[in-house]
Amino acid sequence: MAWTLTKDDVERIAIGAGILGTGGGGNPYRGMVRTKLEIEQGRVLQLVTLDELPDDALVVPMGGMGAPTVGLEKLGSGDEGQRGVEAMQEYLGVKIAATIPIEVGGGNSFAPLIAAGRLGIPTIDADGMGRAFPEGSMITFYFDGHASSPIVMTDAVGRKVIIENAKNSKDLERISRAACVQMGGSAMVVDAPFTVAQLKKVAIPKTMTFAHRIGDAVLKAQAEGSDPVKAVCDVSNGQLLFSGKITDVDRRFERGYNFGRLTLLGNDEWSGEQATIDLQNEFLILRIGGEIKAIVPDLITMVDAERGTPITTEVVRYGLRVKIIGIPAPEQLTTETALKFVGPPAFGYDLPYTPLKRA
Amino acid sequence: MKLRLGIDVGGTNTDAVILDEKATLIARFKSPTTSDVSSGIRNALNGLVQNNPDLDLSAIKFAMLGTTHCTNAVLERRNLNKVGLVRVGAPSTLAIKPFVEWPDDLREAIDGRYVIVEGGFEYDGQETRPLDEAAVRAAAESFRGKVESVAVSGAFSPVDPSHEQRAGAILREVLGDEIPITYSYEIGSVGLIERENAAILNAALVNAAKVAAGGFQEALAAHGIDARLFFSQNDGTLMALEYAIRYPILTVASGPTNSIRGAAFLSGLQDAIVVDVGGTSTDVGILVKGFPRESSIAVDVAGVRTNFRTPDLLSIAVGGGTRVTNDNGLQIGPASVGYRLLTEGLIFGGNTLTLSDIAVADKRASFGDPSKVAHLDADFVKQVTEEVRRMCEDAVDRVKTSAAPMPIILVGGGSVVIPQDLAGASQVIRPENYDVANAIGAAIAQCSGEIERVFSLQEMTRDQAIELAKKLAIQEAVQAGADESTVQIIDIQEVPLAYLPTNSATRIRVRAAGDLAI
């Protein structure tokens, strides 16, 4: 059944998407506010499952590209996504039946909803990451090695760039990122359409409802005064991996990404223990006492110790009191093929993927 | 001899202190805070004068006020100006309109109206669209007679403020020289919504700030005091009165900062944990190089999101008036008799058991009538003391950033209720005059400047950008009243812009502070 989102739903998805964002994906606040405004203006934002559309219906993946800091100032014109989808329809001479998020993590969960709401079409309750990752090649839709062609990029002042026939996804990433910088550091990207039948094979299903369930658990726990971290673990098959405070933030900037390592000092059960987290826009590896406890693509997420709300890599800071939750990666990310794109070596680590120990 | 007067308006008390040139305390007075604030300041000053007949008032050359006046105006939606906003940022910011997620009653209280005009900049300083001057003029016309104060915001104005400035000049042409104008780039950092919100609140507070400043001036004038006047601001430094009238929003969170700075001064320590105990609650903060460590979380002012930084504090429900019950097991707080301690506490002849009574029964403090608590069971007193100790030790542990013991400074009128031997502390100090640490914090405050901007690295190197940011921060500090020879850079933070190629832009924040130019 198609599910029409309320403003309360949007808030829950924002919190859940922040947690699934594993430190990346940008701050969901602005995306959430924009989406709520759409609902206030009477637009209908609908989520449907892949089973609810015919197999030959066309669906476009989409999401924002650019530096989160730019998004703090350039709030967007509001119609970037709509213009992008319309341009894709016109360029290919097809009718797009729905949109789908490339990632359910941080702010990118909302762009497809806003565009679809303005076009009067639904958004698919699924995505291509089940979390957030830093690169376009890390989307399950492209694990067969093909690069999306064409893609449409739109910006807040009405400009439009179409890129076709890139050699591979790295090539596409390079060209689109260069265009993004020239467009003022932020752009909306609409990928070439997939059929519903294709997406059934490659998309990670029901991730928007998963985000919603996590956000709902956090808000309920906050309202009841119970432990929000436990609530998150309960609904996500997750486990509390560490509790402590950040004692050192070593952040550097290379190739357009935030790299770094955080050091944490444990409390409660981990009193006296030291943990480190490697990050590349997202949190990638958690070590406790030097031993790896969780590694990408499993989700390593950091939340405020009291409130259970997500903490992004941009705001991590000396002295923050946090808890680290490990959530097993969706199975689509842990196949042999998938690990070539999103396993530890894809981030430059000569380390094997060791799945989270089941609690 | 030049004297300084420090006044702190707190939730319970308004404290006044006089310091000499060497910052030695030579007079002090505590008086209850009043609902209109100004009369509380007058009372404190009257008390100070009556109790110190030898004081040479003409020697007071500087007067510093830490006040909740503007905070209360926003919280209570009282005495706020009607505000019109011009945002320079169409079409690139249209997706989120001004006043988003504001409490309805606050927006109504300021009759908030806005116009978004074409213009604004990119992160690297390129103009997105030229400023639509005709639209600014039309907005100004539509504000005529309807607004008392205007605010101007613009996309990436911290990188290039020229569109905001030009829009302000047009507003001034149309609305006249008297209309107060708040520029967002002057008061906030990167983050359009938060900076714009702060600018709107600031514009709304212009009257309230004038009232507070006027009350302060009158109270001083009534005693013939002719001094330079300052307000303390959120980061624990001072603003000259004329500056504070223009930027009242910068005073809304000055209270906790003053107590941490006062504790630093009284103890002589630069790095320590400060435990500030009031009547109802205890704030635990951390002092790093003489300044409070700031929170990383965006600050909410009366339900409105801003991006001010305030001290990172942990509050627990332990205070001098905190109620202790033992009906269904031991219960300490969060209920408190607050300022009614002086009538309701056992040691003052009342019927309510409070932490102050426990401290007197435990002989850690001597005030009130100790015979009124002589009946308390020694084991029970010990049990309560241990529980308070546990609550404090836990709070201290949570703000510490390393396991190594640190000095703890106890300040605030209620601090007698805290046991002196706390775990995790290398030493626990309750300095002399601990109970007027806030007012002292206001009196000894430095003048500061802060700059936070996105610097494009197309035309300068990263090091040049940092040098430029330092220079701008120092200029700001000197403008705020600092003696240039004492100005130091106290913090540099850099956040590179993720997802953009290396070396294209970086966000730098620098704070500088120096002693008041005397």
Question: Could you please describe the fold and organization of this structure?
Answer:
The complex is a heterodimer of chains A (359) and B (518). Chain A has 359 residues and is an alpha+beta fold. Helix content of chain A is 31%, strand content 27%. Chain A is built from 10 helices and 18 strands. In chain A, the strands form 4 sheets. Chain A has a 7-stranded antiparallel β-sheet. In chain A, strands 3, 4, 7, 8, 9 and 10 form a 6-stranded mixed β-sheet that branches. In chain A, strands 1-2-5 form a 3-stranded mixed β-sheet. Chain B has helices at 38-51, 69-76, 104-109, 133-143, 162-175, 184-187, 192-204, 206-222, 241-246, 254-267, 341-344, 355-361, 378-399, 437-443, 462-479, and strands at 3-9, 13-19, 25-32, 60-66, 83-90, 113-118, 149-154, 181-183, 228-232, 237-240, 272-277, 282-288, 291-292, 300-301, 304-305, 314-316, 322-325, 331-336, 406-411, 425-429, 446-456, 488-496, 505-514. In chain B, helix 3 links the parallel strand 5 and strand 6. In chain B, the strands form 5 sheets. In chain B, strands 3-2-1-4-9-10-21-23-22 form a 9-stranded mixed β-sheet, sandwiched between helices. Chain B folds into 4 domains: 1-76 and 209-252, Nucleotidyltransferase, domain 5 (2-Layer Sandwich); 81-204, Rossmann fold (3-Layer(aba) Sandwich); 262-443, Nucleotidyltransferase, domain 5; 445-514. The longest helix of chain B has 22 residues, at 378-399. Chain B is α/β, with parallel strands linked by helices. The chains are: A alpha+beta (359), B alpha/beta (518). At the A-B interface, helix 2, helix 3, helix 6, strand 12 and strand 13 of A face helix 13 and strand 23 of B.
Entry summary:
Chain A is of the alpha+beta class. Chain A has helices at residues 7-20, 28-40, 68-73, 80-92, 111-119, 169-182, 196-202, 207-224, 228-236, 336-342, and strands spanning 3-4, 46-48, 58-66, 98-101, 123-124, 126-127, 151-154, 160-163, 186-190, 194-195, 204-205, 239-254, 257-266, 274-280, 282-288, 291-295, 299-304, 321-327. Chains A and B meet through α2, α3, α6, β12 and β13 of A and α13 and β23 of B.
